Amino acid sequence: MSEAVVVIGAGQAAAQLALSLRQGGYAAPIRIVGDEGHIPYQRPPLSKEFLAKYRDPSALFLRPESFWREKDVTLDLGTAVAQVEPDQRRVTLADGREIEYGTLAFATGTSARIPPLPGITLPGVFSLRKIADVEQLRPALNAARRVVIVGGGYIGLEVAAVTVSEGREVIVLEMEDRALKRVAGPATSTFFDTYHRGRGVDIRLGARLTAIEGDERAKSVRLASGESLAADLVLVATGACANDELAAAAKLACQDGILVDEFARTSAPGIYAIGDCTRFPSRRYGRRVRLESVQNAIDQAKAAAGAILGKPQPYDPVPWFWSDQYDIKLQIAGIAEGFDSAEVVGDPASNRFAVEYRCGGRLIAVDAVNDGRAHMMSRRRIAEETAAEAAPARA
Ligand code: FAD
Fold it and tell me: Which CATH number fits domain 114-238: 3.50.50.60, 2.20.25.530, 3.40.50.150, 3.40.50.740?
């Protein structure tokens, strides 16, 4: 049987897995297959400084190309894995090549969630997940005066910050009653809402998009209220879905994400899954979670490497995440969902504060705004308080 490790996807998690395997002394072949044409790169700057100061994409590369050669990691780029046959321990690429593996890892990430609405495929409508998206979006932004961003999550708000700072008119449409609802509590949402409005962003809450209008390209957006808003450019930033179709087709257990255990093992022998594409059991939070963060991609990849190297260490992190908007850094530790009390520490008016979320008296999450120290301390405090009464994960 082949001893090769084959990784599907060439993103943050794939890069970390290959690196950790080599650091751990894994000597057999490692091969990463990625459908984008780039060596592994970091995505966070795509909606922040890379969009603002657009330059050579190599600025985003996690390691130079020479590094992968030195580590003897083979990169098959610009080609997708089209089929996985677990019984044969074989994958087939879209270009027809077949590759045998001893161990396989899915690191397929997520895709932008695009609502199936009239006009959504018109020229002038964009989404943002990869370098190729910025390569299209940036020139279009340069020509746009009025930008409509659909979705007031972190990507939508980060792009709003970049574009309004360039002097463009920016409208953010948010279906919910507050921005950042999926990732942060009300006090944090209010702070960012106020900050953006103060910079000139027109945030429309409870605004549901029903169509994008235009003949040859997007000209306006239509809301459920019947209102129509002119737009030179529309960015759809309405979340992401796990790329789990390939795994599901190979009969791996999936549930909005590839299901893995605390060692990143899927339901099929010899197959792991890591990063954004997975749903894993969190004993801390007593449920399965799917995370979209650099922390998770890196740390879950390390856990998978440990298991492959025969030194398994269960993965049960205090997740953390950051977002940069203007001169504000938001750092989120833990998962606030299900909190029963929220306490603001510090003064939001000073642009430096934290929000502590508790459930049954235990600290489960903290949003820190421009307060790196509070963030670092909260990671330790949450780890202690959530470990004390860790509940078994539900399936
Ligand atoms: P990815 O990095 O998405 O890599 C997956 C790769 O697999 C992709 O290249 C995909 O095309 C490829 N692929 C999929 N299917 C196949 C196939 N069948 N064959 C071959 N290749 C395939 N996180 C933070 O913590 N902080 C931030 O500030 C932050 N900002 C972000 C801003 C943007 C605009 C985006 C898009 C993401 C941001 N994130 C941020 C999230 C973070 O980038 C992801 O969590 C991280 O990249 C996940 O790594 P991954 O390896 O799981 O997936």
Answer: 3.50.50.60
